[in-house]
Amino acid sequence: MLTLLLIMIAVVGLLIIMRREAGAAAALTLLGVLGLVGLLLDATFIGVVLLIGAIAVAAAGLPALRRKWLTPRIFNIFKKVAPKVSATERTALEAGSVAWDGELFSGKPQWNALLNYTDDGLREDEQAFLDNQCATAAGMCNAWDITIERADLPQQLWDFLKKEGFFGMIIPKEYGGLGFSAKAQSMVLQKLSANETLMVTVGVPNSLGPGELLLKYGTEEQKNHYLPRLADGREIPCFGLTGPRAGSDATSLPDVGVVCKEVIDGKEVLGLRLTFEKRWITLAPIATVVGLAFRLFDPEKLLGDEEDRGITLALIPRDTQGMDIGRRHHPIGSPFMNGPIKGVDVFVPLDTIIGGQDMIGQGWRMLVECLSIGRCITLPSGATGTARYALGWSGGFTRVRRQFNVPVAEMEGVQEPLARMAAMGYIAQATVYQTANLIDHGEKPAVPSAILKSQLTEFQRVILSDAMDVHGGKAVTLGPRNYLGIGYSANPVAITVEGANIMTRNLMIFGQGAIRCHPYVLDELAAKDANDINAFDKAFFGHAGLIFGNAARAFTMGLGFGKPSVPFDAPAAAYAQDIARLSAAFGLCADAAMASLGSALKKREMLSARLGDVLSNLYLASMVLKQWQAGDKVEGEDALLHYSCRFLLNRAEQAFVEIFDNLPNRALGKVLNAIAMPTGRRWDKPHDDLARDIAKRVSTHSALRTKLLANTWDTDDGEQPNPLARYNALLVDYDRAEAIYRTVNKAYAKGELPQTALHPEARVEVAFEKGLISEEETLFMREFETQVLEMLTVDDFAYDAFANNKDTLIDHNAKKAAPVQQEQTSSVK
Predict the structure, then answer these.
(1) How does residue 796 score in pLDDT terms, banded at 50, 70 and 90?
(2) Among all residues, which ones are annotated catalytic?
(3) CA-only gyration radius of the chain, Å
């Protein structure tokens, strides 16, 4: 009995010490005291075992002892197996900053570290711009007109965008820009997502490109010349990075600049001779100034002793002699300006280098640092805006579209995708807004940028597919009335650009985060490079303590013990506590994967992707809780919180299961499974009752629908009709219409109306004649049904409308000409 008691005290005590990462001294004390107690009370065997354990802890854990025999051996092994970090990888790892992503990697997230990023909302001028200029711009767009009729934005819209400063949102006011916050920039792009081409056209100049690069790295002369011209639209920028052989692997770009001298107007000028071929460059066909990335060489050593000067960036005017620019690509589903740029032996002066000579060779660092912010904003905001419009249209359509005498929104087969769309849109809104808030507090979230880009554009893919499904024939028939189909076809653009989602998920999220966000790995690698054994000892054994701590935290919380205190009230508290549990399990699994696979983990992309999926879902869930905590709640929002968090945590647990099942070391996978999920999975998919509740609210005039669609283009006073505004107006009147539907349809079912009254309009008129409904109700229903029919109607065209070459048109119904009868003649012999 005493033996069992000592074992239990030892196990519980060690778990507490491990959870707190109290160190070797605490473990040594515990084991030593228990061992002596065992010897004194005649439990000799367990006493000896515990004392041996104490000696082992002392030898391996006390710095003075381990540095004499253990640390040198581990250090030598580490230097052999640690992955080599290339210069470009190191640049990417050192770019940006670590915030909440680092907390999740630690396995013991401190929620106040996230909640302390306070939010003051939008400034007055930002909100006014969102309400007025953005609404006007969105009101000038019709997808069919822009995509099919003109393959461009209307001229008056281009003029408006330039005049109102849309291209200068990130440029400070002292240079003539709007000086918007990251939150405001995101909200603008969400509102402009009513049209894909409009959003991209405005988003790209305010993301990775000359404006941001000049702000951060440009010389004063470059800033003073270009920034005011970019802000007011006199200059339209583009940035040439990708090419035929350099897409996702942008560091392999084969474009070359050679330092040389050129005689111009009788004067010798030091400059660069550039040869390049770029593709997929947004705004290139109309750009007036081109940012260019290239590899710079100095074979004559005119600038110094180095010949290979590295990736460098330059800013080149469009009219530079020898540059071939102006042709267009045809992006799928969206005719935003995009095209190739080429040049052979194009000479430019040295002062075209962004930042001047001091920034030669710094191009990759410049790009990565800018991308950490731009990738958090443009495409995630576009995806979030698309989600909001798709939800608004779908909720409205499914409520007014009736089949089998009921709105299709009442059918569970439609409610399921509606709820999924609402949850994904809710998650996206929270994530993009709260991450923008981090940026406004000075963070440069490198790893979250990869999470947002890949996860939210994948959400967009699902949401648009769901929207197409619930719209049916309305959305598959293109024309001016179709507000959804063209945007649906353009979705692959968001999936592909700014780091293809396959690459981002499989390589970047965990691959970069495992080193950049981990509390100790970067220090261990730095100690290896510096051959500093003392620094390595501190980092490595701190790392070991973290591993034991995460194992203890994951296991005990998995059993339901030791749940952390969190600064949330119900219903958010339970989710915050379980994020902490899964964070500990994630930290443990990340370390186990790195330790067991070493540098081979780079090639285990599917495993890396699943680890990234865990991190991504925990990050998204955290942002949802932050938004919930900070925002005003509306009726029904708790259902959406439950659905969203269950959806994300279920996905995180599924990723864990796939990690355990696919680790090459099967025994390790089983051990991790037992530690991380000792009682099995905890989170089911969201239940049907949540889906029914959410679907009803987003397809009716409710507080939840109003909140989800806030700051979208929802007025019907633009140059083009606004389907969202029209659906909103129908939903306001829907309850009144539904009561009349019930009266009329009940009378028809009883035979009180003629069987020939097959259309709603006919039934309303006959019901009025028979006194079943009032004149006022009849007038109301005439107008209501007129508006409903307009929203259900699709376009049709002349037979030859789609043939660009009319000469190839086949008239399948042309009357066949009578066959010519050949005269039969006979010869007389």
Answers:
(1) very high
(2) 498
(3) 32
